[in-house]
Amino acid sequence: MPCSYVLLNRMIQIEFITAVIEKARNNDYSAQEQLIQMYQKRIAGFVYAMVGSSMELEDIAQNIFIKMIMSLKGLKEYGQFEPWLFRIARNVCMDHLRKKKLRGIFTALLPIHSEIAESDNSLSDEALWIKKVLQDLPAKQRELLVLMQDREYTYEELSKITGSTVSSVKSLLFRARETLSGRRDRELGKRGNAESGGEGIPAVTV
After folding, report:
1. What would you report as the CA-atom Rg of the chain, rounded to the nearest whole angstrom?
2. How far apart (Å, rounded) are the C-alpha atoms in residues 70 and 163?
3. How many whole angstroms separate alpha carbon 137 and alpha carbon 115?
4. Are 136 and 80 in contact (CB under 8 A)?
5. What is residue 148's three-state secondary structure?
6. pLDDT tens-place string over residues 45-62
7. CB count, 10 Å around CB of 49?
8. DSSP H helical ranges for the chain
9. Among 144, 155, 150, 151, which Cα is nearest to 179's?
């Protein structure tokens, strides 16, 4: 896809979101509801990935969107709405984890599934492998990969969301990708060695 088309599409999205945000800031309830509908699936996925519990998902997501609506007037750059929203989501989730003494416990959610808490029985071998590997990553690396699942944020945007420096974000993402790639190569190697007699590890693409 040409870069010019991607850039144009992104500009159109920003203009549309800007118009909705402006109405929502002025207490337009339909616009506020529209913002929630636009992001509720992604926020739900992020919350589940952070707290690892579908039972608490609805309450936490509701809290995030209440904070979003109440804080809209403080948003100065509409083009930064998504990083701003996910920073709110992250802060709400971390507050929740601190209260329950669960900091650092994450469960990866794969965006290819429509249900938030889908049974492992319905996942492909590749999806199960990715889920297991993500769970083994350090929490900070895992958080960044969860954020990157359905959108390519810039390093600066990830820095604002996570409260880390740009250099730290780059380093964490590099190490996470190196870990995934290295583990894939090792397990594919084991699979090749086992082909003549044993049960191998499914071939996967990260």
Report:
1. 19
2. 21
3. 23
4. no
5. coil
6. 888 877 777 788 889 999
7. 23
8. 3-25, 29-51, 57-71, 81-99, 125-136, 139-147, 155-162, 166-194
9. 144
Q: Name the DSSP class of 107.
A: -
Q: From residue 174, how far is each of 106, 135, 140, 178, 182 by CA, in Å?
A: 20, 17, 12, 6, 12
User: What is the tens place of the pLDDT at every residue in 142-157?
Assistant: 778 878 776 777 888 8
99 vs 79: CA distance, rounded Å: 32
Amino acid of residue 7:
L
Q: How many CB atoms lie within 10 A of CB 159?
A: 18
pLDDT for 102? 42
Indicate the average pLDDT of the chain.
75
Distance of CA 53 to the CA centre of its chain: 15
Residue 137 CB partners (closer than 8 Å, separation 6+): 145, 176, 179
Mean pLDDT, residues 99-119: 46
